[in-house]
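Researcher: I'd like a candidate sequence for this fold, 226 residues long. If you have to choose between options at a position, lean toward the conservative one.
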């Protein structure tokens, strides 16, 4: 869009106040792009990520924002949490994508409001179906806990592509644990629950694909008691 700037009649060479605001906003954007505020892993702050020629705002998933190569993020409308922004974000495809794997090389820096004019939302364009990020999947954590809350992870399963798959396996494991209560670790309460897949700690997970999760549980319990 080409914007025509109006000069004030009583002040030759001066811009109208609303046009000056646009110029200031544009200058702030250029300064932000030229000198982005560094992103600090683990800070939990929203970040600016490159999606094609655009820059978008992304919210890191707590606990998954300390990676040096890949973190989990959710794309959000630049004006979130404004109610009108939520409605426009839904229409433009910002919501419903879930958590995504974001390579840290795509991060420009910490999010700054000056980047808002470089987003799809500012151009009233929908986000592309392929934003260049795979889904950050879900997991099941089987944890052994003492009454004081201390304990450890007995088994981690993942990644799952959908939450209902993780919930299904968590229910199966809890049923199995209830059935073998006498064989579960003495002094501990062992439960399974669906959780966010920890992208930064993917090596600690066992892939449940084409596996019987109850067999994996039995092996984990046997390993503890051996």
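Model: Candidate sequence:
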């Amino acid at each position: 869009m080409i914007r025509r700037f109006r000069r004030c009649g009583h002040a030759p060479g001066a811009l109208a106040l609303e046009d000056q605001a646009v110029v200031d906003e544009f200058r702030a954007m250029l300064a932000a792009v030229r000198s982005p505020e560094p992103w600090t892993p683990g800070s939990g702050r929203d970040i600016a990520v490159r999606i094609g020629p655009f820059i978008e705002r992304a919210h890191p998933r707590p606990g998954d924002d300390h990676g040096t190569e890949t973190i989990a993020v959710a794309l959000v409308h630049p004006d979130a949490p404004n109610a009108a922004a939520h409605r426009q974000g839904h229409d433009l495809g910002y919501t419903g994508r879930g958590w995504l794997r974001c390579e840290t090389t795509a991060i420009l820096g910490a999010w700054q409001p000056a980047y808002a004019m470089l987003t799809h939302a500012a151009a009233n364009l929908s986000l592309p179906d392929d934003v260049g990020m795979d889904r950050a999947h879900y997991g099941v954590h089987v944890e052994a806990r003492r009454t004081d809350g201390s304990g450890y992870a007995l088994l981690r399963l993942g990644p799952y592509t959908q939450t209902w798959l993780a919930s299904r396996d968590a229910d199966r494991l809890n049923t199995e644990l209830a059935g073998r209560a006498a064989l579960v670790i003495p002094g501990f309460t062992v439960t399974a629950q669906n959780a966010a897949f920890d992208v930064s700690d993917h090596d600690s997970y066992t892939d449940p694909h084409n596996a019987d999760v109850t067999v994996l549980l039995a092996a984990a319990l046997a390993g503890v008691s051996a």
